Amino acid sequence: MNYFSKPSKSFHKILRLVLLSVFILGCIVTAFFMYYKPSSPLLNHLLQSSDCTKNIPHVYSETNYKNMTIVLLWMWPFGQTYEMNVCSSAFNIEGCFITVDRKFYNKSDGVVIHHRDIAGDLSNLPKSQRPWFQKWIWMNWESPRHTARLPGLNNLFNLTLSYRRDSDIKMPYGFLVTANTVEDFVPPSKDKLVCWIVSNWSPNHVRAKYYNEFKNHINIQTFGRAFNKHIADKDYNPIVSSCKFYLAFENSVHEDYITEKLYNPLSLGTVPVVLGPTRENYEIFVPRDAFIHVDDFKTPKELLADYLLLLDKNEELYLGYFKWRRHFKVNIVKFWAELTCKACDYLRHKNEYKAFNNLNKWFWG
C-alpha cells in the first residue's frame, strides 16, 4: 500500500463539509455570546477576532458596552433628544453605556422611564418581563401639583430619580460647588430694578396672586408668554443679568421643589426673590444671604417693596448678597444627559436588591 498517495476526491469533499460545519457552529456560538455579555477574557478575545462578527450591526460588534453598566432610556423626555454617551467626558462618570435602543432591554442594568411621557393606560411601558437583575427607575422633575397620578404605578418601580432629597438618586436643578480661587465678585451693570420671566400662568397660582399685589407697589419689568413678550433663548441671560432683583417664583409650593428659577439668577449675578418652600428649605441648598424670601416680610407692600427700594439706594447692603460668591460658584444641571449618567453611576455602585412599594404616598402624599 502506498501511504503517500494523494487523497481521493471523496476525502476532500468530506473534509470541506466538516470544516463548513465547524465554521457554521462557530458562528452560531459567536452570535449567541454577542447578545449575552461574556465574562470570560477568552470569550471576549474570540468575539473580537472572529470573522463572523463582521456582518453584525456596528453597535453590537463594538466592545464599548462590554462589561459596562447599561442604562436604557425608554422614552425621550418630552420628546427631546440629546447626546447620550457623554458620562465620562462631561461628568467624569466612567463605565456607562446609555442607549435608547430597546434591543438592549434584556441586558440593561436599568431602564429609566420619564413619568410625564407615560400613557394614562400604561400601554407604552415595557411589555417583556423584567430581567431579575434589572431596575426600573422612575424619573420626574415636575412638582406633585403638575404631575398626573396614574393608576398602576404604585409598586412598579425599583428606584426614584428626582429633585427631592429623599429620592434614591438625588438630582436638584442646581447646586453650589467650591470655587477654585477666592476673589471678590463684581455683579454686572444693572439698568432694571425687578424682573420676571414667566410662561406658565394661572390666576390660581400662589405666585400670580402675590405678583398682582406686589406690582402695585414697585416697578416690575415682565417678559415671557404670560405677558405676550416672547424672548429668544439668547436674550434670557442678558435680560436677567441686567436686573438687580429677579422674581424666582415657583409655580407650586412643595418641599425641595427649587428649580432653575433660583439657580439661573444666582449664576448671572442677580439677587433672586424667592417664593416656594420655606426659607429653611432653601438654606439647605444655598447660603441664607444669597437670596430674599417673600416669607421674611408680612406683606408685599409694607416690607418687601420698601426693602428692595432700600437696597437699590444702598450699594453696600446690596453687594452683601454676593459675598458667598467669594467661595462658591453655581452648577446648573445639564438636562437630560446628566440625569441618565447619575442613574448609571448609582447602579454601578449600588447593586443590591431594591423595590419602591409606595410611590403614590411618597410623591403625592
TrEMBL record:
Pathway: Protein modification; protein glycosylation; Glycolipid biosynthesis. SUPFAM superfamilies: UDP-Glycosyltransferase/glycogen phosphorylase (SSF53756). Residues 188-362 form the Fucosyltransferase C-terminal domain. InterPro entries: Glyco_tran_10_C, Glyco_tran_10_N, Glyco_trans_10, GT10-like_C_sf. Residues 67-174 form the Fucosyltransferase N-terminal domain. Its EC number is 2.4.1.-. It holds the Pfam family Glyco_transf_10. This is Fucosyltransferase. It is a single-pass type II membrane protein. One of its GO terms (biological process) is lipid metabolic process. The keyword Acyltransferase does not apply. Belongs to the glycosyltransferase 10 family. It catalyses: an alpha-L-Fuc-(1->2)-beta-D-Gal-(1->4)-beta-D-GlcNAc derivative + GDP-beta-L-fucose = an alpha-L-Fuc-(1->2)-beta-D-Gal-(1->4)-[alpha-L-Fuc-(1->3)]-beta-D-GlcNAc derivative + GDP + H(+); alpha-N-glycoloylneuraminosyl-(2->3)-beta-D-galactosyl-(1->4)-N-acetyl-beta-D-glucosaminyl-(1->3)-beta-D-galactosyl-(1->4)-N-acetyl-beta-D-glucosaminyl-(1->3)-beta-D-galactosyl-(1->4)-beta-D-glucosyl-(1<->1')-ceramide + GDP-beta-L-fucose = alpha-N-glycoloylneuraminosyl-(2->3)-beta-D-galactosyl-(1->4)-N-acetyl-beta-D-glucosaminyl-(1->3)-beta-D-galactosyl-(1->4)-[alpha-L-fucosyl-(1->3)]-N-acetyl-beta-D-glucosaminyl-(1->3)-beta-D-galactosyl-(1->4)-beta-D-glucosyl-(1<->1')-ceramide + GDP + H(+); a neolactoside nLc4Cer + GDP-beta-L-fucose = a neolactoside III(3)-alpha-Fuc-nLc4Cer + GDP + H(+); a beta-D-galactosyl-(1->4)-N-acetyl-beta-D-glucosaminyl derivative + GDP-beta-L-fucose = a beta-D-galactosyl-(1->4)-[alpha-L-fucosyl-(1->3)]-N-acetyl-beta-D-glucosaminyl derivative + GDP + H(+). Homodimer. One of its GO terms (molecular function) is 4-galactosyl-N-acetylglucosaminide 3-alpha-L-fucosyltransferase activity. One of its GO terms (cellular component) is Golgi cisterna membrane. The chain crosses the membrane at residues 14-36. Keywords: Disulfide bond, Glycoprotein, Glycosyltransferase, Golgi apparatus, Lipid metabolism, Membrane, Signal-anchor, Transferase, Transmembrane, Transmembrane helix.
